[in-house]
Amino acid sequence: MALITIDLRFLTSYDDELVYGEDWELAITVGTSLEIGDVNSVVLPEAFLLDSYNKSQVHEFLLTAWEDIQFKVDVILLNDTYLNLKYAFINSTSVEIVSPYRAEYGQHKTFYAIITQDEEVSLPINVPELSDSGSFPSYWLDLGSLRYDESTLTKRTLEMGVNEFEPKSLYWESQTYTAMPYLPFFSNCKGFDQHIPIFALFEQNKKCDLVAPEDTVYVKPFAFGSEPIADSCEAIQISCIYDEDLGANSDDPRWFEPGPSILFYLTKNPQSASSINSENVNLKTSNFIPVTVTGEYEDSKIPSLVKVEFNYYQVSKTEKRFHS
Fold first, then answer.
1. Closest among 280, 64, 103 to 182, alpha carbons compared
2. Peptide bond preceding 167: is omega within 30 degrees of 0, i.e. cis?
3. Which of 12, 56, 142, 172 falls between 20 and 30 A from 82, CA-CA?
4. Nearest to 172 by CA among 107, 127, 112, 221
5. Cα separation of 97 and 133, whole Å?
């Protein structure tokens, strides 16, 4: 995952003059092999493109890749009147690359969420947008700077066949499952936007106490009374909103409505991208942990607080395994 930070606070002096999309714009180009002159921007996050979003601040974009890619960031001045500003944009951008490495220490593996066509629940709004051939997208781009923005989150646009599917068979077609390295259903959250990477929750969060492998103490099966010393995270709080149309009817119950007992599955063991994206992935129940719903629903009320609990077993000094 590339954390792209762009500091544009100097533009506050031009707030009354510069209009994004008319005088200037950002472009993030992604490809397997890029040249300096290549500029073919991916669609920037919807929240960033809103007129109400403050462009004269520090922006954080999260570019997460499923496979090896190259990317470049360009500032395009569309109005010749402001060409002298090109020097102000120099050194305004920095990039930090982070990868999962703690689920199996030192390996780029992470836990994955699995949704299948058999689940009796509506599809997540942040379901992966598959290609015509049914393949998973090789990357996605999110806006992380909303964690600092004091404005409220804005519901994203729902588009049938893109992030909304009724009936959900329109999504699956020849697919039987979809694996994703992020949490399904949580589609609009501060600091993460549409995708909360599972590894980032446990490896990049200030609420986590990370223990070095040499200091890790794991408990062997049937070693009753022993206490492990290992990574732990407590009270991680993330602000999100519902993207779903709360007043609309759905063929299947939605994840926050009474009905579904299993929302999705998690892989028991951390996986590499190549193994989980294989057509030969083993979908045996024994390989996955069901994520179930507990607690009572109040009639006609939408939950305002959702608690998610993850439990894992420290298999060795370097390996973790999810358990129910």
1. 64
2. yes
3. 142
4. 127
5. 30
Distance CA 244, CA 221 (A): 43
**pLDDT tens string 38-88:** 888 899 999 999 998 889 999 999 999 988 899 999 999 999 999 999 999
DSSP state of 23: T
Query: HSE on the CB side for 107, CA within 13 Å?
Result: 14
CA 119 → CA 282, 290, 311, distances in Å?
A: 17, 11, 23
User: Identity (one letter) of the amino acid at 275?
Assistant: S
Measured CA to CA, the distance from residue 220 to residue 316 in angstroms comes to 8
Most distant CA atoms of the chain, gap in Å: 73
Distance of CA 83 to the CA centre of its chain: 36
Residue 92, Cβ neighbours under 10 Å: how many? 17
* Encoded tokens for 149: 């923005």
Please list the alpha-helical segments (H only) found in 60-134: none
**Cα four-point dihedral sign 110, 113, 116, 118:** positive
What is the distance between the alpha carbons of residues 189 and 194, in angstroms, rounded to a whole number?
Answer: 7
The gap between the terminal CA atoms of the chain, to the nearest Å, is 28
- Beta-carbon contacts of 202 under 8 Å, excluding residues fewer than 6 positions away, are 102, 103, 208, 231, 233, 310
Residues 87, 72: Cα–Cα separation, whole Å: 18
Per the listing, tokens 């009936």 go with 167
Residue ranges per domain, the chain?
2-97, 103-140+164-324
The structure's pTM equals 0.91
136-165 pLDDT per residue, tens: 788 999 998 765 555 578 888 999 988 898
For residue 4 the two structure tokens come to 């792209």
Please identify which residue in the block is written with the tokens 């100097």: 10
Amino acid in the structure at residue 76? I
Query: Exposure of 273 by Cβ count < 10 A (0-12 exposed, 13-18 middle, 19+ buried)?
Result: buried
Q: Could you give the strand order of the β-sheet that contains 2-7, starting from the edge strand earlier in sequence?
A: 93-97, 2-7, 58-65, 139-143
Cβ-contact 322, 312 below 8 angstroms: yes
